Amino acid sequence: MTRALNGLGLATMLAGALLLAPPASAAFVSLPPNGAQVNDDPTNSIDPNQDAGLVDVAGGTVVAGSVQIPWATFEQKVGRWQQIFVRAFKNGAWVTEGLPASLNITPTVVAEAPSIDFAGPGRATPWVAWYEPNAQLGDSTNIFASRFNAGANLWLPSGQDRAAGAHVPSLNIHTDRTAENPSVAGGATTAGNDPVPWIAWEENDGAAADADVSRQIFVAKGVKQPGAGTACTGFKPSAANNLNGFCWQQVGLDRLASGQPTPPDDTIDPTLNIDPTRAGVEPDIAFTGKNDTVVWVVWYEENDTKLTGLRSNQMVFAAKAVANATADGGFQWVAVGNGTAGQSNVLDVSGANHFGPCAESQANEDACSLNK
């Protein structure tokens, strides 16, 4: 599944809020005020006459404590291909960040759906996640993430090298499965710690063939390493050597058999889906709660269920991470819905359907949903 392209121009989508009179009265104005396009930097292959696509924006700074400014990441056509770029609004103008400017792992593919947020000491490191196909991994679309080294003006693709020395740091649970639509949030689950990137995405899982599976929601957190190039020993889904000083750790209780018969893909995986027989899509992730230390993920599920009595209409769900030392990444996911007050609906393998209490009946599923 691919997110629909927004038909508005980037200058319109990235408007800034300007307070006009009393606090209750505000209006949006373009950045810059003359309405110039954000995607306009031909020197860095951002041709304003070619299509831009999905865009995300975050406020941040690469100097801890400085005033935050908008940083925008977006899809940009470059001939027949599509690349991911980042521009920041500095001193009244949009400035392309990074050299080379494209974040693509492979420039000659179509990269899609970028998401941006800040992490690191002082929340001064931009992170961008997106997806693109990769020939080293069999051309399935994989999730990638890069962090920005402001001093060197470089984007650093980070994570386990999943292609035997080819420098392909995919986040996928299974690199031979289609994955799309990442969402990144920087945060810390312990107050006072430096924020790290957490990424939610959707990925096919649960059957031997990619075409026969349902889309699942997964989450991984970035774990900073003492140095680049060392093995991510003990990390899941991969213990391969890290690129650029980070390992990705999947998060949650293992609930869904991958359906793949051979190692390393014959695993049980920590899907967040309430009903893993349906497609979980369009996840978003954020930190909230006391000191912003609680991770939340929201998504929706669609298509026909294969579980007797459960729903087949589109349903929205949310789950929060709760500490569990036995779960992958040290956290389990607990569904929170309209009817779950006073309950603890852990996304585990309990119950007759082996997918936890929310998947036991239509009444339970309704209670775990945000649908009215």
Describe the structure.
The chain is built from two helices and 23 strands. With 372 residues, the protein is mainly β. The chain has one domain. The chain is globular, with a radius of gyration of 21 Å. The N terminus is likely disordered.
Write the layout of secondary structure elements.
Layout: H1 10-13, E1 16-19, E2 26-29, E3 52-60, E4 69-78, E5 81-90, E6 93-96, E7 112-119, E8 125-133, E9 141-149, E10 154-157, E11 159-160, E12 179-187, E13 196-205, E14 214-224, E15 242-243, E16 246-250, E17 256-257, E18 268-269, E19 279-288, E20 294-302, E21 315-323, E22 331-335, E23 345-346, H2 362-368
Antiparallel strand pairs: 1-2, 3-4, 4-5, 5-6, 7-8, 8-9, 9-10, 11-15, 12-13, 13-14, 14-16, 17-18, 19-20, 20-21, 21-22, 22-23
Give a short overview.
The chain is an all-beta fold. It has helices at residues 10-13, 362-368; strands spanning 16-19, 26-29, 52-60, 69-78, 81-90, 93-96, 112-119, 125-133, 141-149, 154-157, 159-160, 179-187, 196-205, 214-224, 242-243, 246-250, 256-257, 268-269, 279-288, 294-302, 315-323, 331-335, 345-346. It has a five-stranded antiparallel sheet with strand order 19-20-21-22-23, with no helix packed on it.
